[in-house]
C-alpha cells in the first residue's frame, strides 16, 4: 500500500485552493515556528510562517497536512516523519509542479507567493478536519490570465470567472464561465461547474450550507450546530438528548451516550459500554475501547465480544483471525505474533511476514523489503510503485497535462 497524495487532488488544490478553504471561522494564523510534536488532539498549522511562498513551499505545506493526517491521526505518531514528508513532496515535484510551471511559463497563469503564504499560514488541521479563514487568498494564489471564450492549454489558465472546459480533458479547451446560484452543474465535472464558494446539489448550484441552529431546518444530515442533531421526523435541528431519553437517530444522544437498538423501536440514549462488558458492534464502547474478541480480533461470535482497549504496536495478535489487530493500520507480524505499524523504506516486508504493505513506500515482494517510490522513467509493475501513481506499459510516467481539472489521472 503506497500511501501517497493523489496528484489530481493536489492539482485541484493548486488550481483553486478549494481543499483548504473549508469555512470562515478561526484566526488568520499569526505565525510563530510550527509545532514539531503532536497528539491526536493537536492542531497543526500547515504553513511555515514565511511571508511569501515559492511553489516548492506550497508542496512543503501540503505535505505537512497530509503527513499530519497519515502519521498522527492514523498511525498515532507524535511527529511528522521525514519519510512521509519527503514522499509527499516528491510526488508534488514529480506529478504536479510541471503542469503549473508550464502554465506560468506560457503566461497563462501567475502565482502570488504572498497570497499562498497567507492561505497556508492560516490553515489549521485537526484529526477531525481542516479549517481556513483565508478562503479568498487560497482561491486567488494561482491566477489564470486567459479570458472567457479564449482557448486554454492547461487547467490553470482561466481567470477567476471561469474554468477550462475540454471534452475528456484533451487540450486545448475553452475558458468557460462558472455557473452561479440557481444555474446548472454536474457532479461528474462533465457539464457546467459551480463558481468557487458554491456547491452542486441535484445538478443546481447553491450556496454552501452553514450549520443551522436548534429549531431551524437542517441544511443536511450533519449540518447542525455543535450539540445538536438533525431530527428526521421534524426536519429540524434539535438539542442532543440526555441519558434515558427516547431516540430515533443514531447521533441524537449527547456526549458519552449512544442510541440503543440502532434507533429502532424502544431505543433510548444510554452510556457507552465500559471495559470488559459485552458488546455487539464497535462504536458502542467507551472512548479508547473497541468491541472485539478475546484475542483482539473482530471475527468471533457476538456473545464472545467485549469492550477492550484498542490494540497498539507490540500487543499480541492472532495471525489466523480475520482482522487480527482490529480495524486500523496495524499489521500482525507473523514472526512474533505482535501488532506492528507498516514498515518503512529499507525495512522487511511481504505477505510471508504478515507485513503486506509499507508506509510512504512500496513492498518489493521479491526482495522482501520496502522501497522508495520510483520516478518517471523507471521500470515498474504496478501504479503504487510510482511517485506519479501511474505505471504505463511497465514504465512510471508523468501524468499528462490536461485542460480540465475535473479529469482524474
Structural class, from helix and strand content? alpha+beta
Q: Specify the number of helices.
A: 5
The helix/strand order is: HEHHEHEEHEEEEEEEEEEEEEEEEEE
Largest sheet: 3 strands, antiparallel
* Number of E strands: 22
> How does the overall form come out from the CA principal axes?
globular
Mean pLDDT comes to: 83
Q: What are the low-pLDDT stretches, counting only 5+ consecutive residues below 50? A: 1-33
Q: Note the beta-strand portion.
A: 15-25%
Strand line-up in the sheet with most strands: 1-3-4
Helix content: 10-25%
> What's the gyration radius in Å?
24 Å
**Could you tell me how far the N terminus lies from the C terminus, measured between alpha carbons in angstroms?**
18 Å
Short description:
17% of the residues lie in helices and 17% in strands. The chain is α+β, with helices and mostly antiparallel strands and 409 residues long.
Structure description:
This protein has helices at residues 7-16, 55-74, 82-105, 113-121, 135-140; strands spanning 44-45, 109-111, 124-126, 129-131, 142-144, 151-152, 162-165, 173-177, 198-201, 204-207, 228-231, 236-239, 257-259, 269-271, 289-292, 306-309, 331-333, 338-340, 362-364, 369-371, 391-392, 395-396. The chain has 409 residues and is α+β, with helices and mostly antiparallel strands. The strands form ten sheets. It has a three-stranded antiparallel β-sheet, covered by helices on one side. A three-stranded antiparallel β-sheet has the order 6-8-7, with no helix packed on it. A hairpin with a 2-residue loop joins strand 21 and strand 22. 38% of the residues are buried.
Amino acid at each position: 500500500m503506497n500511501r501517497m497524495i493523489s496528484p489530481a487532488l493536489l492539482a485541484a488544490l493548486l488550481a483553486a485552493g478549494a481543499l483548504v478553504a473549508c469555512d470562515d471561522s478561526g484566526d488568520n494564523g499569526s505565525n510563530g515556528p510550527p509545532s514539531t510534536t503532536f497528539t491526536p488532539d493537536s492542531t497543526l498549522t500547515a504553513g511555515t510562517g514565511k511571508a511569501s511562498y515559492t511553489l516548492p513551499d506550497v508542496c512543503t505545506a501540503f505535505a505537512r497536512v497530509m503527513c499530519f493526517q497519515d502519521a498522527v491521526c492514523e498511525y498515532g505518531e507524535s511527529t511528522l516523519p521525514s519519510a512521509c514528508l519527503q514522499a509527499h513532496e516528491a510526488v508534488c515535484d514529480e506529478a504536479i509542479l510541471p503542469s503549473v510551471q508550464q502554465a506560468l511559463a506560457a503566461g497563462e497563469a501567475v502565482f502570488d507567493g504572498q497570497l499562498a503564504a497567507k492561505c497556508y499560514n492560516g490553515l489549521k488541521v485537526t484529526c477531525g478536519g481542516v479549517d481556513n479563514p483565508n478562503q479568498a487568498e487560497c482561491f486567488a494564489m494561482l491566477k489564470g490570465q486567459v479570458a472567457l471564450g479564449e482557448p486554454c492549454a492547461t487547467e490553470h489558465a482561466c481567470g477567476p470567472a471561469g474554468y477550462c472546459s475540454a471534452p475528456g480533458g484533451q487540450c486545448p479547451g475553452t475558458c468557460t464561465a462558472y455557473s452561479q446560484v440557481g444555474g446548472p452543474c454536474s457532479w461528474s465535472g462533465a457539464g457546467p461547474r459551480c463558481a468557487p464558494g458554491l456547491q452542486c446539489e441535484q445538478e443546481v448550484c447553491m450556496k454552501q450550507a452553514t450549520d443551522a441552529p436548534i429549531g431551524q431546518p437542517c441544511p443536511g444530515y450533519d449540518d447542525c450546530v455543535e450539540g445538536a442533531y438533525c431530527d428526521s421526523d421534524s426536519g429540524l435541528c434539535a438539542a442532543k438528548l440526555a441519558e434515558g431519553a427516547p431516540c430515533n437517530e443514531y447521533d441524537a444522544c449527547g456526549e458519552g451516550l449512544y442510541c440503543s437498538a440502532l434507533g429502532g423501536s424502544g431505543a433510548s440514549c444510554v452510556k457507552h459500554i465500559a471495559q470488559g462488558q459485552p458488546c455487539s458492534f464497535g462504536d458502542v464502547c467507551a472512548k479508547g475501547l473497541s468491541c472485539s474478541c478475546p484475542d483482539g480480533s473482530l471475527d468471533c461470535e457476538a456473545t464472545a465480544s467485549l469492550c477492550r482497549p484498542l490494540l497498539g504496536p507490540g500487543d499480541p495478535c492472532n495471525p489466523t483471525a480475520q482482522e487480527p489487530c482490529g480495524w486500523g493500520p496495524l499489521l500482525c507480524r507473523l514472526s512474533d505474533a505482535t501488532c506492528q505499524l507498516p514498515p518503512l523504506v529499507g525495512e522487511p516486508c511481504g505477505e510471508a511476514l504478515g507485513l503486506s504493505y509499507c508506509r510512504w513506500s512500496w513492498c518489493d515482494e521479491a526482495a522482501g523489503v520496502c522501497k522508495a517510490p520510483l520516478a518517471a522513467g523507471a521500470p515498474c509493475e504496478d501504479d503504487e510503485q510510482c511517485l506519479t501513481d501511474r505505471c504505463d506499459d511497465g514504465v512510471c510516467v508523468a501524468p499528462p497535462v490536461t485542460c480540465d481539472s475535473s479529469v482524474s489521472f
